[in-house]
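Progress against Task 2.4 (sequence-to-structure conversion) is shown through the following example record, which the project officer requested during the mid-term review.
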Amino acid sequence: MIEKIKPIKLLRVYPIWNLFVSIFILSGCSDDEIIPKEQFTPYQKEVMEYFVDVALGFEFGDASKVTRKWKSEVRIFVGGDKTAEMLSELDGIISELEELTDQLSFSITQDTTESNFYLYFGTGSSFALRFPPAQNHIAANWGLFYVYYNSSDEIYSAVMYVDTQRAQGDARKHLLREELTQSLGLARDSDRYPQSIFYGPWTTGTVYAPIDRDLVRLLYHPNVGTGYNETVVRTVLKDLVKQLNIGA
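C-alpha coordinates generated for the chain above:
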Protein backbone atom coordinates (compact mmCIF):
# COMPACT_ATOMS: atom_id res chain seq x y z
CA MET A 1 0.00 0.00 0.00
CA ILE A 2 1.40 3.41 -0.97
CA GLU A 3 0.89 6.16 1.58
CA LYS A 4 0.05 9.60 0.32
CA ILE A 5 2.65 12.20 1.27
CA LYS A 6 1.10 15.09 3.12
CA PRO A 7 2.47 18.55 2.26
CA ILE A 8 4.70 20.02 4.95
CA LYS A 9 4.27 23.67 5.85
CA LEU A 10 7.56 25.50 5.46
CA LEU A 11 8.41 28.70 7.30
CA ARG A 12 9.35 30.45 4.09
CA VAL A 13 7.68 33.30 2.21
CA TYR A 14 7.06 32.79 -1.54
CA PRO A 15 6.24 35.53 -4.05
CA ILE A 16 2.52 35.75 -4.76
CA TRP A 17 3.04 34.80 -8.45
CA ASN A 18 4.85 31.59 -7.55
CA LEU A 19 2.15 30.71 -5.05
CA PHE A 20 -0.55 31.23 -7.71
CA VAL A 21 1.29 29.00 -10.21
CA SER A 22 1.73 26.26 -7.59
CA ILE A 23 -1.96 26.31 -6.69
CA PHE A 24 -2.95 26.17 -10.35
CA ILE A 25 -0.70 23.16 -11.06
CA LEU A 26 -1.87 21.20 -8.03
CA SER A 27 -5.53 21.92 -8.69
CA GLY A 28 -5.21 20.36 -12.15
CA CYS A 29 -3.89 17.03 -10.81
CA SER A 30 -6.12 14.43 -9.21
CA ASP A 31 -4.93 12.02 -6.52
CA ASP A 32 -5.15 9.18 -9.07
CA GLU A 33 -2.73 11.02 -11.37
CA ILE A 34 -0.25 11.62 -8.56
CA ILE A 35 -0.43 8.13 -6.99
CA PRO A 36 -1.76 5.28 -9.17
CA LYS A 37 -4.20 2.94 -7.46
CA GLU A 38 -4.56 -0.78 -8.06
CA GLN A 39 -7.56 -1.44 -10.28
CA PHE A 40 -9.27 -4.82 -10.60
CA THR A 41 -12.35 -5.78 -12.56
CA PRO A 42 -15.32 -7.18 -10.62
CA TYR A 43 -14.55 -10.62 -12.08
CA GLN A 44 -10.89 -10.46 -11.00
CA LYS A 45 -12.03 -9.64 -7.48
CA GLU A 46 -14.43 -12.60 -7.57
CA VAL A 47 -11.67 -14.95 -8.72
CA MET A 48 -9.36 -13.90 -5.90
CA GLU A 49 -12.07 -14.30 -3.26
CA TYR A 50 -13.15 -17.67 -4.69
CA PHE A 51 -9.56 -18.90 -4.66
CA VAL A 52 -9.31 -18.11 -0.95
CA ASP A 53 -12.60 -19.96 -0.38
CA VAL A 54 -11.66 -23.10 -2.29
CA ALA A 55 -7.87 -23.52 -2.24
CA LEU A 56 -6.96 -23.06 1.43
CA GLY A 57 -7.33 -26.12 3.63
CA PHE A 58 -10.00 -28.82 3.58
CA GLU A 59 -13.68 -29.20 4.37
CA PHE A 60 -13.02 -31.45 7.35
CA GLY A 61 -10.28 -31.85 9.91
CA ASP A 62 -7.95 -29.33 11.49
CA ALA A 63 -5.34 -28.99 8.73
CA SER A 64 -3.94 -25.50 8.36
CA LYS A 65 -5.56 -23.27 5.74
CA VAL A 66 -2.72 -23.04 3.25
CA THR A 67 -2.16 -23.94 -0.39
CA ARG A 68 -1.32 -27.53 -1.27
CA LYS A 69 -0.70 -29.03 -4.70
CA TRP A 70 1.07 -31.78 -6.61
CA LYS A 71 4.69 -31.26 -7.62
CA SER A 72 5.05 -34.68 -9.24
CA GLU A 73 3.25 -36.48 -12.05
CA VAL A 74 -0.18 -37.81 -11.08
CA ARG A 75 -0.07 -41.51 -11.96
CA ILE A 76 -3.61 -42.92 -11.78
CA PHE A 77 -4.60 -46.54 -11.32
CA VAL A 78 -8.29 -47.15 -12.02
CA GLY A 79 -10.05 -49.95 -10.18
CA GLY A 80 -13.55 -51.32 -9.91
CA ASP A 81 -16.29 -50.91 -12.51
CA LYS A 82 -14.25 -49.50 -15.39
CA THR A 83 -16.81 -48.71 -18.07
CA ALA A 84 -15.76 -47.27 -21.41
CA GLU A 85 -17.95 -44.22 -20.78
CA MET A 86 -16.27 -43.31 -17.49
CA LEU A 87 -12.76 -44.01 -18.75
CA SER A 88 -13.43 -41.73 -21.71
CA GLU A 89 -14.73 -39.05 -19.34
CA LEU A 90 -11.58 -39.39 -17.25
CA ASP A 91 -9.40 -38.94 -20.32
CA GLY A 92 -11.34 -35.81 -21.26
CA ILE A 93 -10.98 -34.24 -17.82
CA ILE A 94 -7.27 -34.97 -17.76
CA SER A 95 -6.83 -33.33 -21.17
CA GLU A 96 -8.62 -30.20 -19.94
CA LEU A 97 -6.48 -30.02 -16.80
CA GLU A 98 -3.23 -30.41 -18.72
CA GLU A 99 -4.27 -27.63 -21.10
CA LEU A 100 -4.80 -25.28 -18.18
CA THR A 101 -1.31 -25.61 -16.76
CA ASP A 102 2.23 -26.50 -17.75
CA GLN A 103 3.05 -27.71 -14.24
CA LEU A 104 0.56 -30.56 -13.95
CA SER A 105 0.85 -33.88 -15.80
CA PHE A 106 -1.04 -37.16 -15.63
CA SER A 107 -0.68 -40.74 -16.74
CA ILE A 108 -2.83 -43.85 -16.45
CA THR A 109 -1.03 -46.96 -15.25
CA GLN A 110 -2.09 -50.59 -15.03
CA ASP A 111 0.43 -51.27 -12.25
CA THR A 112 -0.63 -50.31 -8.74
CA THR A 113 2.99 -50.26 -7.59
CA GLU A 114 3.72 -47.45 -10.05
CA SER A 115 0.66 -45.39 -9.17
CA ASN A 116 0.30 -42.60 -6.62
CA PHE A 117 -3.42 -42.08 -7.19
CA TYR A 118 -6.04 -44.80 -6.72
CA LEU A 119 -9.39 -44.08 -8.41
CA TYR A 120 -12.21 -46.52 -7.73
CA PHE A 121 -15.54 -46.88 -9.53
CA GLY A 122 -18.10 -48.96 -7.65
CA THR A 123 -20.28 -49.07 -4.55
CA GLY A 124 -19.38 -47.30 -1.35
CA SER A 125 -19.27 -50.57 0.59
CA SER A 126 -16.86 -52.18 -1.87
CA PHE A 127 -14.67 -49.09 -1.77
CA ALA A 128 -14.59 -49.18 2.03
CA LEU A 129 -13.36 -52.78 1.92
CA ARG A 130 -10.38 -51.58 -0.10
CA PHE A 131 -9.95 -48.35 1.83
CA PRO A 132 -11.23 -48.76 5.44
CA PRO A 133 -10.80 -45.06 6.45
CA ALA A 134 -13.83 -44.32 4.23
CA GLN A 135 -16.15 -46.62 6.16
CA ASN A 136 -17.81 -43.88 8.22
CA HIS A 137 -18.27 -41.54 5.25
CA ILE A 138 -19.64 -43.62 2.40
CA ALA A 139 -23.29 -43.58 3.55
CA ALA A 140 -23.60 -39.81 3.05
CA ASN A 141 -21.15 -39.38 0.17
CA TRP A 142 -21.45 -40.66 -3.39
CA GLY A 143 -17.94 -39.44 -4.06
CA LEU A 144 -14.91 -39.02 -1.79
CA PHE A 145 -11.25 -38.14 -2.02
CA TYR A 146 -8.33 -38.36 0.39
CA VAL A 147 -4.94 -36.74 -0.17
CA TYR A 148 -1.59 -37.18 1.52
CA TYR A 149 0.97 -34.41 1.68
CA ASN A 150 4.43 -33.88 3.16
CA SER A 151 5.83 -31.27 5.53
CA SER A 152 6.22 -28.88 2.59
CA ASP A 153 2.48 -29.17 1.84
CA GLU A 154 3.18 -30.98 -1.42
CA ILE A 155 0.57 -33.62 -2.28
CA TYR A 156 2.23 -36.92 -3.16
CA SER A 157 -0.65 -39.43 -3.05
CA ALA A 158 -4.44 -39.58 -3.26
CA VAL A 159 -7.40 -41.98 -3.14
CA MET A 160 -10.89 -41.30 -4.48
CA TYR A 161 -14.07 -43.06 -5.50
CA VAL A 162 -17.28 -42.50 -7.42
CA ASP A 163 -20.33 -44.52 -6.40
CA THR A 164 -21.51 -45.91 -9.74
CA GLN A 165 -24.54 -47.59 -8.18
CA ARG A 166 -26.23 -44.61 -6.53
CA ALA A 167 -24.99 -42.05 -9.07
CA GLN A 168 -26.13 -42.42 -12.66
CA GLY A 169 -25.56 -40.57 -15.93
CA ASP A 170 -24.33 -37.00 -15.54
CA ALA A 171 -24.15 -37.41 -11.77
CA ARG A 172 -21.33 -39.93 -12.18
CA LYS A 173 -19.44 -37.64 -14.54
CA HIS A 174 -19.93 -34.67 -12.23
CA LEU A 175 -18.58 -36.56 -9.22
CA LEU A 176 -15.56 -37.74 -11.19
CA ARG A 177 -14.73 -34.19 -12.26
CA GLU A 178 -15.38 -32.68 -8.85
CA GLU A 179 -13.48 -35.20 -6.71
CA LEU A 180 -10.54 -35.43 -9.12
CA THR A 181 -10.15 -31.65 -9.32
CA GLN A 182 -10.49 -31.20 -5.58
CA SER A 183 -7.83 -33.84 -4.98
CA LEU A 184 -5.40 -31.56 -6.83
CA GLY A 185 -5.56 -29.00 -4.01
CA LEU A 186 -8.80 -27.11 -4.67
CA ALA A 187 -10.30 -29.05 -1.82
CA ARG A 188 -13.08 -26.95 -0.34
CA ASP A 189 -16.73 -26.55 -1.36
CA SER A 190 -18.32 -23.12 -1.67
CA ASP A 191 -21.85 -21.76 -1.95
CA ARG A 192 -20.86 -18.80 -4.14
CA TYR A 193 -21.44 -20.05 -7.70
CA PRO A 194 -24.06 -22.69 -8.60
CA GLN A 195 -22.41 -23.26 -11.99
CA SER A 196 -19.08 -24.17 -10.38
CA ILE A 197 -18.02 -27.75 -9.75
CA PHE A 198 -16.99 -26.62 -6.27
CA TYR A 199 -20.56 -25.63 -5.42
CA GLY A 200 -21.56 -27.22 -2.10
CA PRO A 201 -25.22 -28.15 -2.76
CA TRP A 202 -25.95 -31.06 -5.09
CA THR A 203 -25.54 -30.41 -8.83
CA THR A 204 -24.80 -32.56 -11.86
CA GLY A 205 -22.81 -30.18 -14.04
CA THR A 206 -20.24 -31.90 -16.24
CA VAL A 207 -18.12 -28.94 -17.40
CA TYR A 208 -15.84 -26.47 -15.68
CA ALA A 209 -17.22 -22.99 -15.19
CA PRO A 210 -14.82 -20.27 -16.40
CA ILE A 211 -13.99 -19.43 -12.78
CA ASP A 212 -13.11 -23.09 -12.10
CA ARG A 213 -10.64 -23.03 -14.97
CA ASP A 214 -9.08 -19.85 -13.64
CA LEU A 215 -8.62 -21.38 -10.19
CA VAL A 216 -6.74 -24.33 -11.67
CA ARG A 217 -4.55 -21.96 -13.69
CA LEU A 218 -3.76 -19.90 -10.62
CA LEU A 219 -3.01 -22.76 -8.23
CA TYR A 220 -0.64 -24.46 -10.67
CA HIS A 221 1.16 -21.32 -11.74
CA PRO A 222 4.85 -21.30 -10.67
CA ASN A 223 4.28 -18.10 -8.68
CA VAL A 224 1.89 -19.89 -6.31
CA GLY A 225 3.84 -22.10 -3.96
CA THR A 226 2.73 -24.59 -1.34
CA GLY A 227 2.13 -23.59 2.25
CA TYR A 228 0.87 -20.10 1.36
CA ASN A 229 -1.62 -18.69 3.86
CA GLU A 230 -4.36 -16.20 3.03
CA THR A 231 -2.18 -13.13 3.46
CA VAL A 232 0.51 -14.40 1.10
CA VAL A 233 -2.05 -15.72 -1.40
CA ARG A 234 -3.84 -12.40 -1.67
CA THR A 235 -0.56 -10.60 -2.31
CA VAL A 236 0.50 -13.04 -5.03
CA LEU A 237 -2.90 -13.13 -6.73
CA LYS A 238 -3.01 -9.34 -7.16
CA ASP A 239 -0.14 -9.54 -9.61
CA LEU A 240 -1.06 -12.91 -11.11
CA VAL A 241 -4.63 -12.16 -12.19
CA LYS A 242 -3.26 -9.31 -14.28
CA GLN A 243 -0.26 -11.23 -15.56
CA LEU A 244 -2.53 -14.02 -16.84
CA ASN A 245 -5.10 -11.52 -18.18
CA ILE A 246 -7.80 -13.19 -16.16
CA GLY A 247 -11.13 -11.53 -16.80
CA ALA A 248 -9.65 -9.26 -19.45
